[in-house]
Amino acid sequence: MRAKKLNFLKSLRLKSLHSVDVQPCILSFCFGLKTSSYSPQRRLLVSLTCLFLILCFILPQPSIWDQDGLWAQEGLKNSSENPKTSETPSSPNSEGANAEGQSPPTPPESTQPAEDAFLAHPVVQKLKAGGTESALFAQSFLNVILDGKPEAIEYRKLLLEALEPKKVITSPDRILVAVQLVSALAYLASTGKTFPEGTQLLVPLIGVGPDSLKKAVRDALVKKIVQEKSSDPKGGSQTIVSIGSRMTTNHPPRMEVLHEASEILWRVDGKILLTYLIDGLLKNQKNQGAEDGAPESISGYILELRERFRLELEDPRQWEKWWDTWKSKNLEAILAEAQRLDDQRRLQLWKNNLGRLKDSGDPVRLLSSIKDTFIFEKAHQIRAASILELKSFPLWLREGLSSPGAISAQDRKKHLSTAIHFLLEILEGRNGFRFVSIDEKTRSIEALSTFGEILTEDQELKGKVIEVVEKELQKYGILPQSIWDDKSHKYSLELIRAVGALRLEDLEIKEFLVKALSLPEKESIKDPVWITAVVTALGRVTVKQEHPASIALILEIYQSAKLNSAKSKTEKAWLDLRKACVVALNLPISSPQRTKVRELYKSILMDAQPSSERIPAIIGLGILARASDDESVKLLEDALKRKAQFDVGEVSSIINALAYLGGEAALEVFIQFLNDKDVAFQDQVWKRTVSLAKAENGKLLDSLLARLQQQAFAKNDISFIEAIVKLSKEAGLKEHFQSQTVSQGTEQQKKQYYHRELHRLRSHELTGDLATVLTGLKTLEAFINQSADLKKALPKALEDIGLLNQRAQLMKKAQDAFKSKPALSPQEVLLAHIELFKQCSKLAPEMKSGSTTLVEMRWHLLSWLTSRVTLLSPSPQSLKLVEDLTTTVSSPDNAKYFEGLDPSVMTRFSDFLKSEKVRLAKQQK
Prior knowledge:
mainly alpha; 48 helices
């Protein structure tokens, strides 16, 4: 009998070496023994026998670790006492491999009854029942183990069986039991109780089973970590170390396990998670021996890093470099930097996509993309960029399309109108276009400022914009004291600037601006930038109509700004305010305020120091001059005479202001400066003079020619005569000096041509081009003879042509004689000119002494004499020649030769001869 028992035990022991499923049978036997009706002595004997059997069955068995190999072979208790030594690496091939890299043997079919026995156990039945009672029972189940009650050993074995990772996933019932027990562990941790083996039970379950079990494991481990950190004075957690060890092994876990572990650590300490992910990434990259690491080894780490921190880095080297920079920073700084880099990357992608839309030249798709971005995008940078694209939309629509005229004017107006409505919806927060911050609203009003062109064409749309702007002014307050320290200060500033940029000429808006400027000085002047914006806007909305109250306010503010600019540290802001005041006063003022404004302009132009206010003051004077203010014309003319005190840009502004004056008044000023010694300045004046002469089909040309000749005689300056010749060659004017152009014109046009051509030929005579004069006179004579009506309208025309022809022939003959004798000395040439002067004066007895042609001839010959005297070299003969010429000119007998000339001309000529006499005398010594 005894031998039979020993053989039976040996067979059981032998079976135990090949299967772990015998254990549940023994446990069931023990549990049945407890509930049997045996006597106490009999039960004791049987219990001792069972204990022996258990020792035989358990101790020789192989490890019952989970598939990731985290439990030691010594069993649950030893692993809980020394968790660090219990960790062994898992296989790189699969989570369920043993330490040798071999998959564990498949349990034999004989273990299936034991499996069914586990699920059929009364305790397990209660755990898998579900519901509140089952959850409460799971908590009691763990408390039995913690309290060390008689059932603790049995319950511990059941707990081990229930949470073994490989077995959990074998059936839905086992999963349900595992969820109940894991939830109970979570509950214990949340109440502050410590379950010693909690970490070793839960960590192997990371990433195992369906979502319900994964969620339960995540929650339980998070609560376990929180419990450990709160009880440890240093805030440490053995569970975090265990999870981190699993994440940073040489053979990383499956991606699903890595993801679940990352979820747990992300909830408790994001920087620790980042540390483990970087360490695991670098370790596996180096262990692979490849430069970039094997994709299957490092891809999980990179995916988790990208998901958690939104950094699109390419390889481990980039991650290592980034981590070296940021590992000393706190998590908030790391996340902020990661967010910034991610927003920057996404912004660039968005810009690239939008760039392709722009290249397509489709405004509808472009606007739709911008709208969708603003509605659905949460990143502030991208939302702000979408508004900036709206700001540049009018320019793109006008210049950015590939081919000119690609969009019709009607379609362009429609697209601009759509964009404005979108901006108005943002400002009002309608139709889903809600702004997130006041900065976005500020950018929207900046963008709206660029749509002024369409508002000038669409008054209905302009009315809607005015309505929204008025509401915004009321809402945010235009009074400075309400916004000095408020975040809406910048928005209010841009709102006021938009009023000026869009030129919203609305009475209510204008009153808002006047009210802002009417505040006491201590409130209104404390922010010169804000007041500058108000003054600028007020000037632009009153440009079409004078507003006396505004003018008075602006003059007062200018004086206050002038005082502050001299003693304030923020001098530039005050100078900008002064300039804004001057610009705002550029109106055609007709009220009594005109004198004050003109005096302000005068004081600015008289200031010897360079000033940004000068050009606005010049423009203002030009506006007043066009409004028939003669004092302003005189101020501009005086400024032009003092051009040395102004820079090039300011001089150009003065010339432009006078040119805009137009007509005879402008010519009267410009003619005075056509002979200026400053070539660049003279060229500017000349171009403006030609532009005036071309205006209205040469309406002012005749007047200009007469004025030039008058100036030449008055100033004894032949350069004015040369200007007439130059005008006749200017493009746009030379056709007025051609007979074929006016031969089919009206009688008035033909008369104008005669006078212009006569001016031109006389000018050529005075400049010495006698061949041109003789040829032109023949053409002009033929032109007169073609029309009897014209001969009748110009009775002296042929007579004047004949006299000019005789004089030109005489002078041409003398000129040819001079050319044939090149050896003549200057003295001989001068004497010949004096003789010619006398001959021309005696020419044609019928020529009256006071005729225009005779006066011109005398003046011209006098000019020739002047030029010849300047050529004389120092010698006794030259000195005597000048003395003889002086006697000839001053002799009463020769006075008849100079009749008709202005006395000032003769006086200047006499003074010239005296100065030449002195020069020759000094040089002779």
